[in-house]
Design a protein that fits this description.
globular, about 50% strand, mainly beta, four-stranded antiparallel beta sheet, seven-stranded mixed beta sheet
Length: about 120
């Protein structure tokens, strides 16, 4: 069955770094674009970063541009989000999302990982 499992969240001080990982299984990973979303308490879920199925193009929200880097390893069926210069406003649950490049209805979510930026 389809599984998307995030890991790597935790508590970090402002200015620190974290790397989130997303392990995918149960679908043809190389034919899915991958995204990271986040949702802070009382706020809507927002798109943070995305990467094409081949990894040749990425996109970032303005709020994280220059600080976050999304990458993928199709051989390992993994997606990563390197987060540097973290700010308290980056505190949220981070979700990994897969969407088929052929069938838009084929989309899957992970369960999320908590990132807390606080001194």
């Amino acid at each position: 069955q389809v599984q998307i499992v995030e890991s790597g969240g935790g508590l970090v001080q402002p200015g620190g770094s974290l790397r989130l990982s997303c392990a995918a299984s149960g679908f043809t990973f190389r034919t899915y674009a991958m995204r990271w979303f986040r949702q802070a308490p009382g706020k809507e879920r927002e798109l943070v970063a995305s990467i094409t199925s081949t990894g040749d193009s990425t996109m970032y929200a303005d709020s994280v541009k220059g600080r976050f880097t999304i990458s993928r390893d199709n051989a390992k069926k993994m997606v990563y989000l390197q987060m540097n210069s973290l700010k308290p406003e980056d505190t949220a649950v981070y979700y990994c999302h897969a969407i088929s490049i052929y069938v838009k209805q084929a989309a899957y979510w992970g369960q999320g990982t908590q990132v807390t930026v606080s001194s």
